[in-house]
Predict the 3D structure of the following.
Amino acid sequence: MAQKRRVVRGLDLVEERLFTLASEYPGVLGEACLATLAAGGKRVRPLLTLLCSRRGEPVSGPVLRGAVAVELVHMATLVHDDVLDRAELRRGRPTVAHQYGAGIAVSAGNYLLARAFSELVGAGATAAVDLLSATAVGLSEGEVLQRAEAHDVSIGPDAYIRRCERKTADLFSAACSLGALLSGAPEAASVVAEYGRLIGLAFQVFDDILDCSGEQAATGKRPGTDIRDGTITLPLIYALEGRPELAETLRRPAVSDADVDAVLSAVADSGALGRARDDALRYIAEARAVLARCPDTVERGLLEQVAAQVMDRYS
Protein backbone atom coordinates (compact mmCIF):
# COMPACT_ATOMS: atom_id res chain seq x y z
CA MET A 1 0.00 0.00 0.00
CA ALA A 2 2.84 2.38 0.84
CA GLN A 3 4.37 1.78 -2.58
CA LYS A 4 1.09 2.61 -4.31
CA ARG A 5 0.80 5.83 -2.32
CA ARG A 6 4.34 6.72 -3.35
CA VAL A 7 3.49 6.26 -7.02
CA VAL A 8 0.14 8.07 -6.78
CA ARG A 9 1.89 11.01 -5.13
CA GLY A 10 4.51 10.94 -7.87
CA LEU A 11 1.85 11.06 -10.59
CA ASP A 12 0.18 14.00 -8.85
CA LEU A 13 3.50 15.85 -8.89
CA VAL A 14 3.99 15.00 -12.57
CA GLU A 15 0.55 16.39 -13.37
CA GLU A 16 1.22 19.58 -11.43
CA ARG A 17 4.51 20.10 -13.24
CA LEU A 18 2.93 19.47 -16.66
CA PHE A 19 0.30 22.13 -16.05
CA THR A 20 2.93 24.55 -14.73
CA LEU A 21 5.05 24.14 -17.86
CA ALA A 22 2.07 24.33 -20.20
CA SER A 23 0.74 27.51 -18.62
CA GLU A 24 4.08 29.37 -18.50
CA TYR A 25 3.78 30.56 -22.10
CA PRO A 26 1.24 33.39 -22.45
CA GLY A 27 -1.42 33.78 -25.10
CA VAL A 28 -2.82 31.33 -27.58
CA LEU A 29 0.20 29.01 -27.54
CA GLY A 30 -0.21 28.47 -23.81
CA GLU A 31 -3.92 27.91 -24.32
CA ALA A 32 -3.16 25.27 -26.95
CA CYS A 33 -0.73 23.48 -24.63
CA LEU A 34 -3.26 23.56 -21.80
CA ALA A 35 -5.91 22.18 -24.15
CA THR A 36 -3.61 19.27 -24.89
CA LEU A 37 -3.26 18.54 -21.19
CA ALA A 38 -6.97 19.02 -20.55
CA ALA A 39 -7.71 16.25 -23.04
CA GLY A 40 -6.37 13.93 -20.37
CA GLY A 41 -4.65 10.65 -21.03
CA LYS A 42 -3.67 7.55 -19.15
CA ARG A 43 -0.18 8.85 -18.25
CA VAL A 44 1.12 5.32 -18.75
CA ARG A 45 4.61 6.45 -19.71
CA PRO A 46 5.34 8.59 -16.63
CA LEU A 47 3.78 5.83 -14.53
CA LEU A 48 6.34 3.41 -15.96
CA THR A 49 9.15 5.83 -15.16
CA LEU A 50 8.02 6.00 -11.54
CA LEU A 51 7.54 2.23 -11.22
CA CYS A 52 10.99 1.50 -12.63
CA SER A 53 12.74 3.89 -10.25
CA ARG A 54 14.39 2.57 -7.10
CA ARG A 55 11.64 1.26 -4.82
CA GLY A 56 11.37 2.01 -1.13
CA GLU A 57 12.62 5.57 -1.53
CA PRO A 58 10.74 8.84 -2.09
CA VAL A 59 10.43 9.73 -5.76
CA SER A 60 13.44 11.93 -6.44
CA GLY A 61 13.57 15.19 -8.36
CA PRO A 62 15.49 13.66 -11.28
CA VAL A 63 12.95 10.82 -11.61
CA LEU A 64 10.08 13.32 -11.64
CA ARG A 65 11.85 15.31 -14.34
CA GLY A 66 12.25 12.15 -16.39
CA ALA A 67 8.59 11.24 -16.00
CA VAL A 68 7.51 14.75 -17.04
CA ALA A 69 9.89 14.75 -20.01
CA VAL A 70 8.58 11.43 -21.31
CA GLU A 71 4.98 12.63 -21.18
CA LEU A 72 5.87 15.93 -22.87
CA VAL A 73 7.49 14.07 -25.76
CA HIS A 74 4.40 11.88 -26.05
CA MET A 75 2.08 14.89 -26.01
CA ALA A 76 4.16 16.67 -28.65
CA THR A 77 3.93 13.70 -31.00
CA LEU A 78 0.15 13.52 -30.57
CA VAL A 79 -0.25 17.20 -31.44
CA HIS A 80 1.94 16.82 -34.53
CA ASP A 81 0.23 13.59 -35.58
CA ASP A 82 -3.15 15.31 -35.46
CA VAL A 83 -1.85 18.02 -37.78
CA LEU A 84 -0.55 15.47 -40.27
CA ASP A 85 -3.75 13.40 -40.07
CA ARG A 86 -6.03 16.46 -40.17
CA ALA A 87 -7.73 14.83 -37.18
CA GLU A 88 -10.68 16.60 -35.60
CA LEU A 89 -10.96 14.49 -32.45
CA ARG A 90 -8.49 13.19 -29.90
CA ARG A 91 -9.86 11.29 -26.88
CA GLY A 92 -13.32 12.46 -27.83
CA ARG A 93 -12.39 16.16 -27.77
CA PRO A 94 -11.45 18.63 -30.53
CA THR A 95 -7.76 18.41 -31.38
CA VAL A 96 -5.48 21.41 -30.97
CA ALA A 97 -5.12 21.52 -34.76
CA HIS A 98 -8.89 21.61 -35.25
CA GLN A 99 -9.44 24.14 -32.47
CA TYR A 100 -6.54 26.53 -33.09
CA GLY A 101 -5.31 25.74 -36.59
CA ALA A 102 -2.32 23.82 -37.92
CA GLY A 103 0.18 26.64 -37.37
CA ILE A 104 -0.53 27.00 -33.66
CA ALA A 105 -0.64 23.22 -33.27
CA VAL A 106 2.80 22.78 -34.84
CA SER A 107 4.19 25.53 -32.61
CA ALA A 108 2.58 23.96 -29.53
CA GLY A 109 4.06 20.57 -30.38
CA ASN A 110 7.49 22.12 -30.90
CA TYR A 111 7.21 23.95 -27.57
CA LEU A 112 6.24 20.78 -25.70
CA LEU A 113 9.15 18.89 -27.26
CA ALA A 114 11.63 21.63 -26.38
CA ARG A 115 10.34 21.77 -22.80
CA ALA A 116 10.76 18.00 -22.52
CA PHE A 117 14.48 18.26 -23.10
CA SER A 118 14.97 21.36 -20.96
CA GLU A 119 13.21 19.47 -18.17
CA LEU A 120 15.42 16.41 -18.59
CA VAL A 121 18.64 18.42 -18.76
CA GLY A 122 17.78 19.63 -15.26
CA ALA A 123 18.03 16.04 -14.03
CA GLY A 124 21.78 16.21 -14.60
CA ALA A 125 22.18 12.85 -16.37
CA THR A 126 23.73 12.92 -19.82
CA ALA A 127 22.85 9.27 -20.45
CA ALA A 128 19.17 10.06 -19.89
CA VAL A 129 19.25 12.95 -22.37
CA ASP A 130 21.03 10.76 -24.92
CA LEU A 131 18.41 8.03 -24.48
CA LEU A 132 15.40 10.30 -24.91
CA SER A 133 17.04 12.11 -27.84
CA ALA A 134 17.58 8.82 -29.67
CA THR A 135 14.01 7.83 -28.89
CA ALA A 136 12.66 11.11 -30.29
CA VAL A 137 14.63 10.52 -33.49
CA GLY A 138 13.06 7.07 -33.71
CA LEU A 139 9.59 8.55 -33.26
CA SER A 140 10.22 10.79 -36.26
CA GLU A 141 11.48 7.83 -38.27
CA GLY A 142 8.38 5.87 -37.33
CA GLU A 143 6.12 8.67 -38.53
CA VAL A 144 8.00 8.82 -41.83
CA LEU A 145 7.63 5.05 -42.17
CA GLN A 146 3.90 5.27 -41.55
CA ARG A 147 3.54 7.95 -44.23
CA ALA A 148 5.71 6.04 -46.69
CA GLU A 149 3.75 2.83 -46.14
CA ALA A 150 0.30 4.43 -46.36
CA HIS A 151 -2.08 2.34 -48.49
CA ASP A 152 0.72 -0.21 -49.08
CA VAL A 153 -1.11 -3.51 -48.78
CA SER A 154 2.08 -5.48 -49.40
CA ILE A 155 3.59 -4.82 -45.97
CA GLY A 156 3.70 -7.79 -43.61
CA PRO A 157 3.77 -8.29 -39.84
CA ASP A 158 7.53 -7.71 -39.56
CA ALA A 159 7.34 -4.28 -41.22
CA TYR A 160 4.36 -3.42 -39.04
CA ILE A 161 6.26 -4.34 -35.86
CA ARG A 162 9.28 -2.26 -36.92
CA ARG A 163 6.98 0.73 -37.33
CA CYS A 164 5.31 0.08 -33.96
CA GLU A 165 8.67 -0.13 -32.22
CA ARG A 166 9.66 3.32 -33.43
CA LYS A 167 6.29 5.03 -33.03
CA THR A 168 5.20 3.50 -29.73
CA ALA A 169 7.30 0.81 -28.08
CA ASP A 170 10.60 2.67 -27.96
CA LEU A 171 9.08 5.49 -25.88
CA PHE A 172 7.63 2.94 -23.45
CA SER A 173 11.08 1.37 -23.27
CA ALA A 174 12.77 4.72 -22.68
CA ALA A 175 10.25 5.60 -19.96
CA CYS A 176 11.23 2.47 -18.06
CA SER A 177 14.97 2.96 -18.55
CA LEU A 178 14.81 6.56 -17.38
CA GLY A 179 13.25 5.49 -14.10
CA ALA A 180 16.15 3.17 -13.39
CA LEU A 181 18.88 5.50 -14.64
CA LEU A 182 17.65 8.59 -12.82
CA SER A 183 17.19 6.81 -9.48
CA GLY A 184 20.69 5.38 -9.36
CA ALA A 185 19.77 1.84 -10.41
CA PRO A 186 21.53 1.47 -13.79
CA GLU A 187 21.76 -2.29 -13.32
CA ALA A 188 17.99 -2.48 -13.90
CA ALA A 189 17.89 -0.25 -16.99
CA SER A 190 18.32 -2.84 -19.74
CA VAL A 191 15.86 -5.32 -18.22
CA VAL A 192 13.08 -2.80 -17.64
CA ALA A 193 13.73 -1.39 -21.12
CA GLU A 194 12.82 -4.76 -22.63
CA TYR A 195 9.72 -4.96 -20.45
CA GLY A 196 8.68 -1.52 -21.68
CA ARG A 197 9.27 -2.42 -25.32
CA LEU A 198 7.03 -5.48 -25.06
CA ILE A 199 4.30 -3.61 -23.18
CA GLY A 200 4.46 -0.88 -25.81
CA LEU A 201 4.02 -3.38 -28.64
CA ALA A 202 1.03 -4.96 -26.91
CA PHE A 203 -0.44 -1.51 -26.27
CA GLN A 204 -0.19 -0.57 -29.95
CA VAL A 205 -1.61 -3.85 -31.23
CA PHE A 206 -4.57 -3.56 -28.87
CA ASP A 207 -5.06 0.04 -30.01
CA ASP A 208 -5.16 -1.08 -33.63
CA ILE A 209 -7.62 -3.85 -32.76
CA LEU A 210 -9.88 -1.31 -31.08
CA ASP A 211 -9.78 0.88 -34.18
CA CYS A 212 -11.29 -2.03 -36.10
CA SER A 213 -13.74 -3.11 -33.43
CA GLY A 214 -14.31 -0.48 -30.74
CA GLU A 215 -16.90 2.18 -30.21
CA GLN A 216 -15.92 5.85 -30.34
CA ALA A 217 -16.70 6.18 -26.63
CA ALA A 218 -14.04 3.56 -25.86
CA THR A 219 -11.32 4.86 -28.17
CA GLY A 220 -11.93 8.60 -28.39
CA LYS A 221 -11.86 8.44 -32.18
CA ARG A 222 -14.05 7.15 -34.96
CA PRO A 223 -13.77 3.41 -35.66
CA GLY A 224 -11.94 2.81 -38.92
CA THR A 225 -9.65 5.83 -38.60
CA ASP A 226 -6.66 3.75 -39.73
CA ILE A 227 -8.58 2.65 -42.84
CA ARG A 228 -9.40 6.26 -43.69
CA ASP A 229 -5.77 7.29 -43.17
CA GLY A 230 -4.38 4.38 -45.17
CA THR A 231 -2.49 3.00 -42.17
CA ILE A 232 -2.13 -0.75 -42.66
CA THR A 233 -2.30 -2.29 -39.19
CA LEU A 234 -1.93 -5.86 -37.98
CA PRO A 235 -5.68 -6.69 -38.10
CA LEU A 236 -5.78 -5.42 -41.70
CA ILE A 237 -2.66 -7.39 -42.63
CA TYR A 238 -4.20 -10.59 -41.28
CA ALA A 239 -7.57 -9.87 -42.89
CA LEU A 240 -5.90 -9.38 -46.28
CA GLU A 241 -4.43 -12.89 -46.12
CA GLY A 242 -7.90 -14.41 -46.28
CA ARG A 243 -9.71 -11.58 -48.03
CA PRO A 244 -7.30 -10.24 -50.69
CA GLU A 245 -10.13 -8.37 -52.39
CA LEU A 246 -9.96 -5.84 -49.53
CA ALA A 247 -6.75 -4.54 -51.07
CA GLU A 248 -8.66 -2.61 -53.71
CA THR A 249 -10.41 -0.52 -51.06
CA LEU A 250 -7.37 -0.12 -48.81
CA ARG A 251 -5.27 1.21 -51.70
CA ARG A 252 -7.65 4.10 -52.36
CA PRO A 253 -6.50 7.55 -51.21
CA ALA A 254 -10.08 8.32 -50.17
CA VAL A 255 -12.82 5.99 -48.98
CA SER A 256 -16.48 6.47 -48.12
CA ASP A 257 -18.08 5.62 -44.80
CA ALA A 258 -19.76 2.69 -46.55
CA ASP A 259 -16.34 1.44 -47.71
CA VAL A 260 -15.00 1.67 -44.16
CA ASP A 261 -17.98 -0.19 -42.75
CA ALA A 262 -17.55 -2.93 -45.35
CA VAL A 263 -13.87 -3.38 -44.48
CA LEU A 264 -14.60 -3.41 -40.74
CA SER A 265 -17.24 -6.08 -41.28
CA ALA A 266 -14.85 -8.18 -43.36
CA VAL A 267 -12.11 -7.84 -40.74
CA ALA A 268 -14.50 -8.97 -38.02
CA ASP A 269 -15.58 -12.00 -40.06
CA SER A 270 -12.05 -12.99 -41.07
CA GLY A 271 -10.69 -13.97 -37.65
CA ALA A 272 -8.02 -11.27 -37.97
CA LEU A 273 -8.95 -9.61 -34.69
CA GLY A 274 -8.45 -12.84 -32.78
CA ARG A 275 -5.06 -13.43 -34.40
CA ALA A 276 -3.90 -9.91 -33.60
CA ARG A 277 -5.17 -10.28 -30.04
CA ASP A 278 -3.16 -13.50 -29.66
CA ASP A 279 -0.04 -11.61 -30.74
CA ALA A 280 -0.70 -8.85 -28.21
CA LEU A 281 -1.24 -11.41 -25.45
CA ARG A 282 2.05 -13.06 -26.39
CA TYR A 283 3.84 -9.73 -25.92
CA ILE A 284 2.18 -9.39 -22.51
CA ALA A 285 3.32 -12.90 -21.55
CA GLU A 286 6.87 -12.11 -22.66
CA ALA A 287 6.83 -8.87 -20.67
CA ARG A 288 5.75 -10.76 -17.57
CA ALA A 289 8.58 -13.22 -18.09
CA VAL A 290 11.02 -10.31 -18.25
CA LEU A 291 9.69 -9.05 -14.91
CA ALA A 292 10.89 -12.25 -13.28
CA ARG A 293 14.46 -11.17 -14.16
CA CYS A 294 14.07 -7.64 -12.80
CA PRO A 295 16.07 -6.76 -9.70
CA ASP A 296 14.26 -5.96 -6.47
CA THR A 297 14.90 -2.24 -6.99
CA VAL A 298 11.81 -1.92 -9.24
CA GLU A 299 8.11 -2.25 -8.39
CA ARG A 300 7.61 -5.67 -9.95
CA GLY A 301 4.16 -6.21 -8.47
CA LEU A 302 2.85 -2.89 -9.76
CA LEU A 303 4.49 -3.44 -13.16
CA GLU A 304 2.60 -6.73 -13.30
CA GLN A 305 -0.60 -4.76 -12.73
CA VAL A 306 0.28 -2.45 -15.63
CA ALA A 307 0.62 -5.50 -17.88
CA ALA A 308 -2.81 -6.68 -16.75
CA GLN A 309 -4.36 -3.26 -17.41
CA VAL A 310 -2.92 -3.14 -20.92
CA MET A 311 -4.40 -6.57 -21.55
CA ASP A 312 -7.77 -5.32 -20.30
CA ARG A 313 -7.87 -2.71 -23.08
CA TYR A 314 -9.40 -5.39 -25.29
CA SER A 315 -11.29 -8.22 -23.65
About this structure: The beta strands are 89-90, 93-94. Residues 211 and 223 are 5 Å apart (CA to CA). The chain is about 75% helix and 0% strand.
